[in-house]
## 1
Amino acid sequence: MKLSAWTVCIYLMLCLGVPEISVGQLKPGAAHLAPVKLPPLSVTKFEGTKTTVHLPAPYVNDAVDGGGGRYLIFQLQDKKQLAIFDVVEARIVKTLDVNSDDLAFAAGADKLVVLLRDQHQIERYSLQTFKKEQSEALPPDSPVSRITIGAASNGPILVGAETGESGHPYFLDLITLKPAAIQMSEESWESIEGQNLMVKASANGRIFCLSQSGTDPTFGTMVISVEGLQAHVRYSEDMQGFKIADEEYLNVVLPGPEGKAIYTSSGTRYPDLLRLDKDTEYKPISFGIPALQGDLCMALVSGSSSIQIYRTGALPVLLTLPDIWSKERWPDYKAGLRTAHARLRFVPDAHVISFLPESRDEIILHRFDVDAALKETGTDYLFVTSFPTRDAERGDTYQYRVRFKSNTKPVKYKVMNAPVGMTVSPEGLIHWDVPANSTSDKERVYLVLESPSGKRFMQTIAIYVTYKPGVLGEPPDNPGRKSRSSRR
């Protein structure tokens, strides 16, 4: 297949890591391929271990993350305003006037997008200057009523409708605010419809998870993966969550920030919906809430106001933090599971966990430094926090850089049961030039870490070896699922 000049340019820029490229230099519709510039994240600036910040008015709908977790954005009740809360400054830094109270909004690395539903208008603001940069009219009959963006991304923007026969959802480009240059098969899409449907994006904007709670479990779970200029849709009718009452289901599916894992009611899975514990040493936990950065997650503790910290949604528990939320400010545990992802946020680089009470008029910030907390336990610890790269193409290079936490360093690395040619560097970079004629469809590798104190940790890495797209012998793509109407 012959590549156009602009595609080659993008490929070289991404592979070589050239930092000067900007969204304005890309072909219209490909802004999501530009390198991301995040605002700096430092330790949150408040005294003591806890503080409460009052909002100028209660907010409606859920708060939206932006700036890679630095900003929380609220739509203020009975006001045509959005309040932008800076997690580092621990204060509202801007109250933004908008020309409607019938809104949907979402934020990326440094942009805020506002949909004025009643005016069929979409607008983009800078999260640096807080000024409006662009406005585009949508067709009068446009069904768009919800928008979703990765909080640390340059898009794309996934748009869809709340109710009715809305046709297929699609992507908008973050810069042009017009359809993105992302190809997809319309037959792959389910209608984004229903008030109880939840749509969440990974922070890097590469994974979008769709799930639905309520009395109609037929939607199941959908994951949309954006790879370059192609969108792939994976669907499971069986992933309906679990029953919390007669004919009422709770199905909460959240993507991790790097788009390598998704968190579900039944445990953590790969984006293609395969369970982690099928291939690896991960032991599943239910209803994990991923941190906005890195490889840690949280979960509620039944019968208490505590939360527990895990690595990428897997046992064992690393830390338990008491009194993060209170029953006076939140309903019972089972009902709390429904909204925990909207109430709790963990920003590791800012050393903060935020709790948004049900009153919707304040933000409670808890100072939490995971490294300091681990040291305070006084125990010897070593564990991997990074999530391994899973897929490799024949004839390409596989790489995975391990991240870990240990109270003693330096740590030594070793790979066991590795394919011929796979190496691991003293810095923890696994490298494998995958043979073009490889006959293996799957490799199971064991990465062993050892600290100076003798503490050892083993991570199981499952690598699925695939053919390059378009290469003779590639298995056909056959999702084998029925349409929504035929499943009812």
## 2
Amino acid sequence: MSSSILWFRRDLRLGDHPALLAAAADGAVLPLFVLDPALWGPAGDVRRAYLLRTLRALDADLRQHGRGLVVRSGRPESVVPAVAAETGGRAVHVSADFGPYGAARDERVAVALGEVPLVRTGSPYAVAPGRVLTRDGRPYQVFTPFHRAWIDHGWRAPADSDPAAVAWAGAPSDDLPPEPDLRDVDLPEAGEAAALARWEAWRGTPYDDVRDRPDLDATSRLSPDLRWGTIHPRTVLAGIDADDPHTATFRKELAWREFYAHVLHHWPDSARAYFRPELRDLPYVTGAELDRRLDAWARGRTGYPIVDAGMRQLLAEGWMHNRVRMIVASFLVKDLHVEWQHGARHFMAHLVDGDLASNQHNWQWVAGCGTDAAPYFRIFNPTTQGRRFDPDGSYVRRWVPELADPTLGAYPEPIVDHAEQRAATLEAYQLLRRHGR
């Protein structure tokens, strides 16, 4: 049967889906997901497992409407045109991708499709990258003016996409690969229904009061849902009262996500390279000492309880509280003198919500080489951060139980002295400035 193809990528839901509306306007809709080896190969087991669970949830949702998800494996520029030819596809509909790889991939697919159009409708963002610019048409490099312009620009209401009103088409499908063995990693429930339930359960939480407290476990936990598109930020924004200081703060966190997508869109090299290249000449450890420090940090064996708690939470849940992400990142770069790319890679390998734009640019923000207007002097003290944001130590006790019960094992002595390393970091920065680099 001739149909339009809806190619799912980072929009693994059926509600609030503009590309689905556009596809349905053309007639029957074939739901397609392409397992792309260029993305599947580098992904860590946590992200692979969560993606597979999300795809199974999407497939179950589609089957309620008579058809399942069509899965094919291979390079999209080969697979998508082949599916279009096989099914008589009149058009391929997608949510626009603004990442470096995704944008280039879509251009290759558009060329390979020939006369079959690749139709981009909507994106994973409330405001697509490239739309919020300065008055003279340049991209913002600092968050605060971007945030003001982003609010002034505004966003559309959620799209009224009703999967029950769609004529769904089918085609033969590959099997999904087996799920990696995560052993004891505890991932959140996947899929659109779980995302909406998380959002509804969390709405009304006094965000300003709890957002920096890892011991309370009271943040929204929506980052994996936003990463995989099981909920759209527009859906969340529609439920936010901008006059409430708590929800206004939460909206600002959504704006950070959109800002970093904007930065990556305009400066794609910043995914791997320094946004502020003048800081790339700071001294960092190498060789065996790099391996030793990185291993202690990654396993949660640095001798700094709040750091170790965060790193162990990452291994156990594929997630880490945002405040703790900043603490452990600062410690790696500015106490252990390990270059930020090493930490960014570790996070991307283990985070269920690993998002290239947010991950890489948050690491650069902490390292002092990103978009921050006053970058390098911010050095988190892991001891005072722990006392302030985990005041009775319950977060640390959960993840570092040997501190309270030595029979569980010996806790290591601090790997470095924070005061000494802070002074060394500031001295290196001042030396770099004096030499005009």
## 3
Amino acid sequence: MTTTGEEGSAAVTGPWWWARWRSAVLDGALALASAAECGAEGVPFARDAGILVPAGIVFGLLAGSVLVLRRKWPIAVVLVSIAITPAQMGFLMGIVGLYTLAAAELPRRIIVALAGMSLVGTLIVTFVRVRQDMARGDLTLGNWFVPFASITTSLGLTAPPLLLGLYVGARRRLMESLRERADSLERELQLLAERAEERAEWARGEERTRIAREMHDVVAHRVSLMVVHAAALQAVARKDPEKAVRNAALVGDMGRQALTELREMLGVLRAGDAADRREASVPLAAVGAAAAAAASRAVVDDGAADGPCLSELDELVGQSAAAGMAVDLSVQGAVRTYAVEVEQTAYRVVQEALTNVHKHAAGAKTYVRLAHRVSEIAMQVENEPPPEPGSASAARLPSGGNGLLGMRERVLALGGVFVSGPTDAGGFRVSAVIPAG
């Protein structure tokens, strides 16, 4: 089906090939007018042809009513108008047919060919008719009037509808192209919004994972040492009061340190919640920026608070030694500073590894090795078998099973390598290498 002036994408609600009832009514009215015109012009045609007048009228009515098919078969309408041009009928059908043909989605060569045929046919018929009128004396103008009238009439009946149809067709195609582009942009915006929501959800998940990892590192180590000291305090409270006092002081110091780190983390969380509320008030098109901001905040917050660094490693080892663990710390290479994320990750790996020794191998000899290399930093925490193999810590420390997973996630997030597992001697080893950059 060939579309003309109406939107090709409109829903089909009219009868037969019409997209709308309004189009059907318009074509029906044009067909009635064309049939009336051709029927009236059929009277002189019948007299000139020497046939019965009713036959000429019927012929005109049938020929003029073909205009009702202009939207479905515009080529057929134009051909019929060209065919009845010698009978001097179908002027309305020719004009409307050429307009419909030019506005239709047809190859340009077909439009030009049919328009040329209509122009030539009208030119010849007009030339012959005007010359006959002058020969009969109906017109007394000079001979120049014959070609002038022929050319003017043929151009007047052909050029305006052709140019108007070409303009309307080009405009309709432009509007359809713009509409398609608008629909495409709308679909792209919806897709971007969906992706932005996915990124925001991913960023929230990463934030929750990071917070859980930080909470685990802060609480697990400090509280584990507090529980170990509390157990030692219970054991020596009556036998060695001075040692009990020292253990109690250590428990208090570690509790204050844990509270300080928790307050810092809660401050970061409150700042993040305020930023999230601000991001929630922006339009949907800015969700992608909010997701990116959340993801960036998740990385920056690791170093936003004054977190631990490698210079505090001696203190960390000293706390474990004060809890009764035999710890040996060795550092290789030139000591230098690293990015905040690198130092915090290295510190947390050693901290969590020592916590695991407290939980699962209480009293075991432990070796902490730190190596400063040219483009990376390596750390290893290895413990010997506990004095009583298979026994857990006397303090009955619970294990959540997330320590090794958290260490691996931290190291891999910085592009490092993490390996953990039992040793041949029956102990356990945790090793990590982090790029210095």
